Amino acid sequence: MSIPIIDSHIHLWNEAEAPSHNWYAPDSPLATRHSISEYREATSSSASQLSGFVYIEADRKNDDSKDWSEPLNELAWMRRIIEGTPQEGEGHTADNAKLCLGIIPWAPLASGLPKLKEYIATVEEQAGEAAWAKVKGFRYLLQDKPNKTGLTEDFIDGLKLLGEKGWVFDAGVDQHRRGRVQLEELVEIIDRAHDGVEDEDKKVVFIINHLCKPDLTIVSQTDPSFIAWRSAMFTLGKCRRTYMKLSGLFEEMPDSLKTQSAEQIFSAILPWLAVVIAAFGPERIMFGSNWPVCEVGVGEEAWKKWHKIVDMMCDMAGLSQEDQTMIWSGTAKKAYNLEG
């Protein structure tokens, strides 16, 4: 039986707007158009299984409390995809609209409740009915922000607002480059965001990106970095209403490993995969590709390679068909409240 796939983490942009991202460099392989036509080509090996994707904001330039123009331009781009109204050369068609199952725009979580409410009202106004219905939550990257950004009263109040309204928070932290403090702060953020919220259904859902970006350049499981990451995974796994994306690991590997076969990569990262399975269980893990970022240093076969690695993980863990279905699509449907 063919298991349906929901890709819980992709980014899209047209070439004209690529310079509006914080990560942009003219010589970057990501500086060209990466739209649904390119995504469909990358996923062609699993086209019959692919039910759709969740579009995650791609880190447009912004000023938290003053200038929201680029995140709102991205919203307009999301809207055109969902409504099937592409501008010339944007690389998507009306027929592609059904693939976009949900969107996670940026939001100014650190700017205080008045600004956050103003921004969300603007999103609702500018999204249009179809795209607004696809908004499943918001993201504000913590991986590149000063320590304790997510621990301010403003930030915690913003997270509680998301929970009250039924939106998720996509959490992006980076142990590889920022160290264990990012893991420790994420645990505290979740605890404080849920504290005092009596209605379980009003506690904000956290969807953690990329296994918190562990350092995959280390070779020993006795390395302090691995031990700290493993400990954090089991702590996070005990948190209520918290899910993990099985995504983004190519970016944390040494370049020499990225070009190896799926089998060799799987063998190298198995200790990390085993920890996540043990800590969260299939019912709280979801497949995500992090396309097109996953292709950097890996090549156009990156999506296919990552799919094979996750497939091998499912086999190695001896997961039942039901558990495999949760990882490939069921967990994403549940966590994001996706239709279909």
From TrEMBL:
InterPro entries, A to Z: Amidohydro-rel, Metal_Hydrolase, Metallo-dep_Lactonases
Tree of life domain: Eukaryota
Gene3D superfamilies according to UniProt: Metal-dependent hydrolases
GO molecular function: hydrolase activity
Domain Amidohydrolase-related residue range list: 123-338
Family: Belongs to the metallo-dependent hydrolases superfamily.
PANTHER family on file: AMIDOHYDROLASE (PTHR43569), AMIDOHYDROLASE-RELATED DOMAIN-CONTAINING PROTEIN (PTHR43569:SF2)
UniProt name for this protein: Amidohydrolase-related domain-containing protein
Provenance organism: Cercophora samala
